[in-house]
Amino acid sequence: MERNGKGRGRVTRDEVARLAGVSTAVVSYVVNNGPRPVSEAARRRVENAIEILGYRPSASARALALGTADTFGLIVPEITNTFHAQVVEAVEGEALGKGKSVILANSHTDPALERRLLEEMADRGVGGVMLITTSTSDDELVVQNLGVPLVLIDRQRPLPGFATIGPDYRAGGRLATQHLLDHGYTDILPIHGVAAESHPNDRLSGYNDAMLAAGLVPRAPLVVSWTREGGYEAGRRIVREGTMPRAVFSLGDMISIGLLAAFYEARIRVPEDVAVVSFDSTMDATYSCPPLTAVRQPVEQTASRAIARLTASGPVEPGHELLPVSLDVRSSCGC
């Protein structure tokens, strides 16, 4: 007999029971390891049927049996990223306030590991999963028959068939760039991380919007990795090539911190020689030298909305929630 393929619907407990020649109750006892004992022969037949059919137990049923319906999963790409760490803290706090708990997993920016973690979360029988995907294109985000509610957070665009939540990145890009324009800076260089393949970076689109509205030609972005190291290399490259702009819009705090380090080494003063506005407004931005003016991501509101969607009665409905952003003005811009 062939295994269950992707094209088929979800295999049911009844199908496993028929193939194994047992009752559905026996299948449940094997899957949940109780509450009643099962003979070794019957257990082997059930396990063999599960293997042949590719059966995955209903996560909601297992949650009720194992007592994990009040536990949610959270998968982030990189826990060392200060922004992701703040998301974790906000989600845990919101969940605890609702009497729920959170299981955390780190995908290490590996799409294959991310999919495996999603399946493992479902197999644990959690009440739902929140995911900041590391996939560079929507086509890579393959989630078939997961069996538990899923909410994608920190999404800049909707994804058909999924519940998604994200900040208004484009408005944030406009806000940051307009702040620099209001200072009188017209030579503004955007620096961002490697872009997703499936759609443009909305933060950069906001930058382009503001520049064009001011009658200026947007500069081509300097593209690096979304890391402190990437920002550091960007700063060194700017210094080495002698292409110092009057202002920089860095599309992430991690990049900005590395950029400030490179400028400091080269004795380039911020904001006297070059102004910098960042995006995220993490704790790193507050305690950098100088403190970074930055677009604040709505981390607490994201956590609140994600938990609300997972705890609402009925299934999680597809659709995108766009959350507003704001600007935290500090001293890196010249204010």
TrEMBL record:
Keyword entries, A-Z: DNA-binding, Transcription, Transcription regulation
CDD domains reported in the protein's UniProt record: HTH_LacI, PBP1_LacI_sugar_binding-like
GO MF, one example: DNA binding
Protein's name in the database: LacI family DNA-binding transcriptional regulator
Gene3D superfamilies for the chain: 3.40.50.2300, lambda repressor-like DNA-binding domains (1.10.260.40)
Species, as recorded: Schaalia naturae
Pfam families: LacI, Peripla_BP_3
Lineage summary: Bacteria, Bacillati, Actinomycetota, Actinomycetes, Actinomycetales
Keyword set includes Cell division: no
Transcription listed as a keyword: yes
Domain HTH lacI-type residues, every copy: 11-66
